[in-house]
Amino acid sequence: MLAPQTGLIASLLLAGSALCAAASVPHAQHEEAHHEKIAPKVFIVSMFAPEAEIWWNIPEFDILAHNITVPGLSPIYPDVHCTEDFEICQLITGESEINAATTVTSVAFSSLFNLTQTYFFIAGIAGVNPERATLGSATFARYAVQVALQYEIDIRELPSTYKTGYFPLGADFPDQYPTSIYGTEVFEVNDDLRHIAAKFARRGNLTDSTEAKAYRAHYNTTSGQYKAATLPPSIVECDVATSDVYYSGNILGHAFANTTKLFTNGTGDYCTSAQEDNATLEALMRAAVHKLTDFSRIIVMRTASDFDRPYPGSSATYNLLYSDAGGYTPAIANIYRAGIHVVEGILSNWETTFAGGVEASNYIGDIFGTLGGQPDFGPGRAEALVNSGAYKKRSLRR
Ligand SMILES: *[C@@H]1O[C@H](CO)[C@@H](O)[C@H](O)[C@H]1NC(C)=O
Ligand SMILES: *[C@@H]1O[C@H](CO)[C@@H](O)[C@H](O)[C@H]1NC(C)=O
Ligand SMILES: *[C@@H]1O[C@H](CO)[C@@H](O)[C@H](O)[C@H]1NC(C)=O
Ligand SMILES: *[C@@H]1O[C@H](CO)[C@@H](O)[C@H](O)[C@H]1NC(C)=O
Ligand SMILES: *[C@@H]1O[C@H](CO)[C@@H](O)[C@H](O)[C@H]1NC(C)=O
Ligand SMILES: *[C@@H]1O[C@H](CO)[C@@H](O)[C@H](O)[C@H]1NC(C)=O
Ligand SMILES: *[C@@H]1O[C@H](CO)[C@@H](O)[C@H](O)[C@H]1NC(C)=O
To answer: Which PANTHER family does the UniProt record give (predicted)?
Structure first.
């Protein structure tokens, strides 16, 4: 269940069980238990083994000094890993939205941790829009958009005027704002923190592969539409789409770029696609409501492992299944090469900047304004709540 040498954790578990019987715990003992909680400065969020292992056995720190089994984690990734001094920890969600939501909820609500000052650093690979970035690049998002949370009709059963089979819940057409709102459609994170993190990441020496260099050249068209795809890997600030469905092709690429623009009222800039971020953000937001996490301390970094659509003259199937584009290896390596500077930047500027937090000048949170403030996307707090069905359901019950 836990590493035998971790005396702190052993006492934590005892403290945890004492806390379950909260009412009977004397005040002093209660306080002491709180102080024993693990309070990492940075929590690295990985989604699967290769993303996690790139942080293992590195010269800067040993994140495998403590392995802590946390109830609710994935059966294949049951442990949180931490450095000897617990300043840096790592969790591995498992892939897809359900795994991400369940794992992050379990950690965020676990009595083992005090995460009120913790920076959550989502650091994974992703598909990439060749109009915005290229293989191996590291991207930093302000918005995470759950693009497939929509109606879908197979496009072959729609009139030929439709350009996509997806249209928002409660909407009659693909370009209409959803009128049935679940609350996880869009998350907006701290834009000021994003700029700082991207600046730290630019200190990194990103790597590339000869295969990726050759594959990228296919996107070099006379129109220049995919200029970003032809350039060497770099740090790019652009947004991430979340979908359990791993998609490929021009139609879905364009459709979900449109969805990102629509859901974020024109601000979102779709560049990467992955299967977890909105789920992770929803869990961190629910914990923030109870002051267990700070939603202004989240960084979403995705490195590009493959293109979301084929190069001109190629096909969506080839792009997904048969191309050896060579982006995967540099994307994994660049999680570390870019991300290590984000982690070190936070730790080395802890007292001056990060302990107190980086104030967000943008709205942060969800479409309901759950954490306060007016969302700068969506129909506004009041209307979003009405459209959530919360009120409708109540009246149905009557
Ligand atoms: C969590 O850590 C913060 C910052 O160090 C501290 O102020 C707070 O009392 C701690 N809360 C708990 C529940 O341990
Ligand atoms: C923690 O787990 C990793 C990976 O399973 C292992 O390599 C490492 O030795 C473990 N650390 C401790 C302290 O047991
Ligand atoms: C997912 O999260 C991103 C980033 O916070 C946000 O921009 C996006 O709107 C979210 N999408 C959905 C559908 O929740
Ligand atoms: C950057 O990385 C490349 C590829 O790994 C390496 O050849 C080069 O020496 C590195 N440059 C610096 C300045 O570290
Ligand atoms: C793109 O193609 C043009 C014309 O063939 C060439 O001059 C240019 O160097 C190419 N750019 C890249 C980045 O490959
Ligand atoms: C995306 O939006 C543009 C502009 O409204 C539209 O022309 C295009 O058909 C849309 N593409 C898809 C696939 O929905
Ligand atoms: C976002 O766009 C929708 C319609 O597309 C509109 O009803 C809403 O007021 C806009 N919200 C903001 C915050 O501008």
So the answer is: PURINE NUCLEOSIDE PERMEASE C285.05-RELATED (PTHR38643:SF1)
**From the alpha carbon of 377, which atom of ligand 7 is closest?**
13
Domain boundaries, the chain: 7-23+37-387
CA 84 to ligand 1 center in whole angstroms: 20
Question: To the nearest whole number, what is the mean pLDDT of the chain?
Answer: 86
Q: Is the pLDDT of residue 3 over 70?
A: no
Is the minimum distance from the CB of 30 to ligand 1 under 6 angstroms? no
Q: What is the pLDDT of residues 325-372, one digit of tens each?
A: 999 999 999 999 999 999 999 999 999 999 999 999 999 988 888 899
**Ligand 1 site, residue 117, Cβ cutoff 6 A:** yes
Indicate the CATH number for domain 7-23+37-387.
Answer: 3.40.50.1580
CA pair distance 252, 369, nearest whole angstrom: 29
The reported pLDDT for the residue numbered 98 is 85
3-state secondary structure at position 87: coil
CA–CA dist 136, 80 (Å, integer): 27
Ligand 3 contact via 188 beta carbon (within 6 Å): yes
265 ligand 2 Cβ < 6 A: no
